Amino acid sequence: MDQEGQRRKLLRNLLRLGIAGAGLVMLPTQSARALGSIPPKLPPGRSIYKLSGEVLVDGLRASLNTPITASSHIRTGDASRIIFVVGADAFLLRSNSELQLQGEGSLIRGLRMLTGRLLSVFGKTNSQRNIRTATATIGIRGTGIYIESEAQRSYVCTCYGHTQIQALADPTQQKDVRTRYHDQPWYILAGDSGALFQSAPVIDHTDAELELIEELVGRKPPFVEDSLFGGPDGAGGGY
What we know:
Layout: H1 3-17, E1 48-52, E2 55-57, E3 60-61, E4 73-76, E5 81-86, E6 89-93, E7 98-104, E8 107-121, E9 129-132, E10 136-149, E11 153-167, E12 174-179, E13 186-189, E14 197-199, H2 207-216, H3 222-229
């Protein structure tokens, strides 16, 4: 195994132990099943698995029976969150966040992450979809991704899959990311000069959360399959 492969294997082991890097607050060893959180399949016509606190969907206070479409606008208040499904895609939107979905019916073609924090898993499609934050655009295909959008910087962790990340302030600055286990988190800055990409730690999202929202759409994250079948040691790859 080369040096980069050894680094990734070590990082993966440290992440699973929850001790890699200052400020790391993620990746406990519990699976969603160990947490008792494996969700049942949602009833036909239902979009929302769980919500808490104040959540608005298309401007109205949401309940478990509120439908969410591929063009819905979703906003969460203090101490609030929502877990929901649209088509083959599933989402966990945290507190004080605002998200605009872009598409038709149950087919999401893009997202605008106006502010806040979002964990998402996307089914495979024949076309690339785009996520736009305050400082970046991210092209995605069949991907698990965690995003934080702030006015002066965005945080993007491609948890697994393939993304193409481009800085809005300078489109010539971009990253092509292929990973199976949180290998290349980035901050993307809003500045108009200099290096707009900064290497970042893995923060504020867990493997158990990824496993839970993948279960909502009938899938498992690739790191679960790797652990069961002795797959790659965190090496990059499509999903």
